[in-house]
Amino acid sequence: MASRKKKAPAEKVVDFSDFETPDVEAGGNAGKNALRALGKLAQKQAKAEKKLGDLEAKVKLATEELRLIAEVEFVTALDDVGLSEVKLPSGISVEIEDDVKTSIKKDNKVAAYTWLRDNDLSAIIKNQVVVIFGRGKREDQKAQTLVRNASKKYGEGQVGQTTKVEPQTLKKVMKELLADGKVDVPLELFSIYRLRRTKLK
Prior knowledge:
The protein is an alpha+beta fold. 47% of the residues lie in helices and 17% in strands.
């Protein structure tokens, strides 16, 4: 006769919000000490979370402040005096560098990848192909054969393909193409934003 498996007891969640409950009182000082320790840890975590949130907010503000100085105020000041580079009495050198921000939005992915392939830039596209087989010994053998031979012969399962272009690689290529000027790059397709910012040396 097969024995029945016992159900695992449900995990008990204890509500410690009321310090005067009989369960807590029954534990005596040990229970109260445990509650105090838990309460301190909760306060400690809450304090740490707030501290992190405050720091993240400060970093966000500092990042925006730096962007305004480097991309707007300093560039404008140098343009006003007709300079693109200057060495200050303090020894710091400042120069304006041209840069771009670019990305491929989801809605533009197919068109953007087609453009890259049509312009001999498919090398920057990363491909990952996944072949999905069913269960069973025969399917497992097919999978092993496919892996060994790196062949599409047994592509009876569903084949999924994912493609990706690394952001830094895309930025580098687009920056070079724009600087070269020989290829008409569709700016909207790659969400290209040209910018000028100062760089300290």
